[in-house]
Amino acid sequence: MQFKQIVGQDAIKQRLINSVTENRVSHAQLFLGPAGSGSLPLAVAYAQYLSCENKQPDDSCGECSSCRKYQKLMHPDLHFSYPFFAKHKDDTAITFIEQWRDAFIANPYLSLDTWRGYLEAENKQANINIAECHQIIKKLSFKPFESAYKILILWLPEYLDKEGNALLKIIEEPQPNTLFLLVAQNQDQILNTILSRTQLIKIPALGYHEIKDFLVEKHHQTDEAAAQVAYLSNGNLTEALAMLQDGNDSFHNQFVQWLRLCFGNKGIEIVAFVDQASKMGRENQKNFLRYGVNFLRECCLILSGAENLVHLPPSELETAQRMAKAMSIPLAQGIINELEKAHYHIERNANPKILFLDVSLQIIKLISLTIRQKADT
């Protein structure tokens, strides 16, 4: 992985390169960024740069023996640890290393849901177990084999339970030229004893235009299609790529039609919509609900007089302006809350037919309550 393959994050890339050229490489670093920001590929690109035999001013060379091994994630001094779904108590990350390499090479902007798809997860909970902690200690007790550094990249240390305390000594007093690169999304879920022993590198979410330009240039999307996906992804490139893979079409007409049915309290037609929505597939259902949340937030901006902040294509903006006339901010916020709860439950495999029917009824209830309140005033 080279820095040039990573979308955006130019300031972070330069900071990492400077730490190497100025010989200020901390032995334990925490790459903290939201999902889809590129924290994991940045850690891998940084490790490759550290091990590169012919470093360039702004990137690894990509051609030396070390870089070629890094591109296949098969360098003898590069080690990974990550959450997995153990079938046996002595399973460790090495048990699943082939699946890990396949998953990362296919998409460096990996999510836990994507990773789950490469494993026979069944209903098991992901974690980093005590056997893996002992394996980390064993692997890092040796000197580097080929390069200047032996590097461990630990993805999602949030899944280290109290067993993670077994790593404290080796993190605090590692072998010479041994680096720990932790890649996390939620600082509050990391053991404080580990957090206090790392140098924090905060990685921001990607910008709207960074994602849009990437989709146009690298995935040959039209400006309109790229704009909608960038808008829906909310700075999360993992989500943006998942939407492309799912063949995501515009949800605008479908969502607006659903709201109109709810405003008209058209029960039979709502049941037909629910039947249709239940067959969309889990990822499309999540994207549909996410679109609804974002669209209603744009309506709230219009209602608040902040129309200059709205990011909608012209045709959708016109619909949002008309819809804002029939809405109030409390009503929009109430519907948003219902859509967010539905998204949460879809992620946890709720029955979609029951779920969409319930959300429809809750929206009708909110609309009826708003109408009654207006009548009373």
Describe it for me?
The chain is α/β, with parallel strands linked by helices and 377 residues long. The chain contains 17 helices and five strands. The protein has helices at residues 10-21, 39-51, 65-71, 97-106, 112-117, 130-139, 168-172, 192-195, 208-219, 223-233, 237-245, 252-263, 267-277, 282-303, 314-325, 329-347, 352-376; strands spanning 28-32, 78-81, 150-155, 178-184, 199-202. It has a five-stranded parallel β-sheet with strand order 2-3-4-1-5, with helices on both faces. β3, α7 and β4 (178-184) form a beta-alpha-beta unit. α10 (223-233) packs across α11 (237-245). It starts with 9 loop residues before the first helix and ends with a helix. The mean pLDDT is 86.
What's the SSE blueprint?
Blueprint: H1 10-21, E1 28-32, H2 39-51, H3 65-71, E2 78-81, H4 97-106, H5 112-117, H6 130-139, E3 150-155, H7 168-172, E4 178-184, H8 192-195, E5 199-202, H9 208-219, H10 223-233, H11 237-245, H12 252-263, H13 267-277, H14 282-303, H15 314-325, H16 329-347, H17 352-376
Query: Low-confidence parts, pLDDT < 50 over ≥5 residues?
Result: none
Please tally the β strands and state the result. Answer: 5
Number of helices: 17
Give the ordered list of helices and strands. Answer: HEHHEHHHEHEHEHHHHHHHHH
Secondary-structure class: alpha/beta
The overall pLDDT, averaged over residues, is 86
**Rg from alpha-carbon coordinates:** 24 Å
Strand content: 5-15%
